[in-house]
Amino acid sequence: MYIHKFFLSTLKAEKEQLALEHRKALDAQEKISSELKDKLVQAELWHARELKEAQAAAETKLDGSLKDFTDASAQLRKEMEEETRLRKEAQARNATLTTDQVEYDRLVVQADTLALNLFPESQPHAFKKVAERRAEQSLSNPDAPWDAYDHLVALAARISHMRCVDQNLVDLPDLAIQLFKVLWPGEVPPIDLTLLSNRLKDVGKRFSDWRRSSARAGADAALRVACSWYEDLDLDALHSLRGSAPTDTDPAKTTKRKDRAYRIAQSAATSTFIPPPADLADELSGDEEEEDAGKDEEEAPVEGVVPDQAPEAPAS
Fold first, then answer.
1. Which of 49, 69, 122, 193 could form a disulfide with 158, with the two C-beta atoms 3.0–4.6 Å apart?
2. Residues 138-180 pLDDT 10s
3. Rounded to whole angstroms, what are the CA distances from 253 to 12, 35, 175, 261, 296?
């Protein structure tokens, strides 16, 4: 009986001990579960907060990207509009330049034509410059009609030529007056340039007159020398050359005659105009004078007519 009670007491004590241990284990499990639950709640809160922050950051970044995209699209649209505007302006400007170039080419050709009409003597200079330009460009057809640039080169050549001429135009009136005084000594030069120019148109004939005057001066000087030594010399007999004269046939005498003539010519009054006698007709026409002026002066043999009575030199 006693043993049975002891056994029951022991079992009860063990049962209570087991119950206490079980309670402790349950309390520990509950504590762990509570801690895990708190951690889970905190993790959920942290996750929710992180998710919210991530969403906010993503939304902020997306808004920024959308704003950047919108700004970039607006800038691109603006640039495209500006490019379109500039293209239209360039097209309009090109059309204007094309029209202006056509008008400019027309004015260049017109100006060159006018310069040619005003200064026809400039044409050789223009042709030379255009030919040089075409040679430099190695044109396939150098004989092709002139284009606007050729006319521009020709116009520049005419201007350069006339500029060179113009540099001397200032001196021309004074030089013309000096020339007039030389050709017409003792005559007052016209003050009016037109009258002076009209007078100078006869320069060719006047030079011919001066050549004849110099010839008369030389002949007079030779006759003066002869008459000063031979006072009885018959001047009426000296109207032609005597054929086969020794001073024409003998080279030594011919050379001596020429040397003496050149020395006598130095004392001839070639600076004083000597008009021809009133009864002496001019043998040369105006055309013959022009032709004679372009030839070299050569001494040609002259067949003289032998007079019936040649003058004899008086005894010295």
1. 122
2. 777 778 888 888 889 898 888 887 777 666 666 677 878 888 8
3. 193, 162, 44, 12, 25
